[in-house]
Amino acid sequence: MHCIASRLVCLVFIFVLSVRCLDGAQYSVTETDDEIRLETSELAAGIRKRGYVTGVKAQSFVDKKTGAKDLGFGLDIADWIMEPGSDEAYRDQLEQAGHKELIYTFGNEYHGKTPKRSVEGPQICTQAKELAPEVIRGPNFIAVRQTFRYRTAAPGKNIGSLWTQVMVFPEGKRYFISMQRIDAVNSSEAMFLRIDMPGHIQHKNGDSFSEVYLSYCGRIPSQEFSKNFAPDERFNYRRGETPVPDRMIRGYQIRDLQSGSTGPWLVGMTLDPGVVSEAWCHQRGYVCLIEEFNGRPVKAGESFSAAFIVGYFDNIEEMHAVYDAHKGHTGLKVDAKTWMLTK
């Protein structure tokens, strides 16, 4: 009994340290072998170390004001490095090399008609399997930095581009600020990174959300997502075909499944709208909110990035105000003293 009691005291002591050693800040960090758990006065969030990794863990992003949670498979999730064009000419080589994860089919309901191909893989969220996130504790924020080097590539391409994600959770805010960056080892005429931004929407006939908001389309009722359709059929943004909007904001208004009442909006903002090359919002069993950024020439040794805000808002006017206060940035720097959005 004495041994058990001692272990319990130690566990409690470790947890209290994680809460109180932050110079009086109202947030906490707890870690296990599998994930990091963050809490501020306004939010809770989980960051996976193993399994389905990158971004914020599914259904762990809690708005303490309303109790709302995200509705998808995770937020701010990272996939492949890609470029325009088909991989059909060398698909047999990918199969023989055991790189089926790099094969990208098109002309279907999932991906639409546009030919695209993977430059490097694998898809980080499903195939990296394990990351080592670094926690940075600041005076009024908590941040997480994580990286991954791609380990497969298309024929003729190099392996080893570096993906970096930084997420900053400021005390007192219902959102986090993030960046995803690629330091490329390959050259491409139009390289882009595919991500989930903010994240997908699981639902049954629109029961879990009332509306989608796309700053380049407006408000879309949930009934519009009752049947599957391809990403290039409806609500698709493509730079060069659609005028660049003043703001790039995408998200949904959560609906309470039991009462049917509407709750807060959960949205993702890309702070430089011009960096987005394509953005999907289509139904494929769930509402798929994929975004691709950069889509411009990159030389080996160069980098590209985008900065985001992901979080909860009571109304569209509040979203616009926060967006306009941070607009125009593509980078994010952080250390133990401060964080800063950069151009």
Provide structural commentary.
The strands form six sheets. Strands 9-10-12-13-24-19-18-15-16 form a nine-stranded antiparallel beta sheet, covered by helices on one side. A seven-stranded antiparallel beta sheet has the order 11-7-6-14-23-20-17. With 343 residues, the protein is mostly beta strands. The model is unreliable at 1-23 (pLDDT under 50). It has helices at 2-20, 91-96, 124-127, 316-326, and strands at residues 28-31, 35-39, 43-48, 50-51, 62-63, 77-84, 116-121, 129-130, 134-137, 141-149, 152-153, 162-170, 175-183, 188-196, 209-214, 218-221, 237-238, 248-255, 262-270, 276-279, 282-283, 287-288, 290-298, 303-313, 331-334, 339-342. It has one domain (73-342): Beta-galactosidase, Chain A, domain 5 (Distorted Sandwich). The protein is 12% helix and 41% strand. It is built from four helices and 26 strands.
How is the topology of this model organized?
Elements: H1 2-20, E1 28-31, E2 35-39, E3 43-48, E4 50-51, E5 62-63, E6 77-84, H2 91-96, E7 116-121, H3 124-127, E8 129-130, E9 134-137, E10 141-149, E11 152-153, E12 162-170, E13 175-183, E14 188-196, E15 209-214, E16 218-221, E17 237-238, E18 248-255, E19 262-270, E20 276-279, E21 282-283, E22 287-288, E23 290-298, E24 303-313, H4 316-326, E25 331-334, E26 339-342
Antiparallel strand pairs: 1-2, 2-3, 3-5, 4-8, 6-7, 6-14, 7-11, 9-10, 10-12, 12-13, 13-24, 14-23, 15-16, 15-18, 17-20, 18-19, 19-24, 20-23, 21-22, 25-26
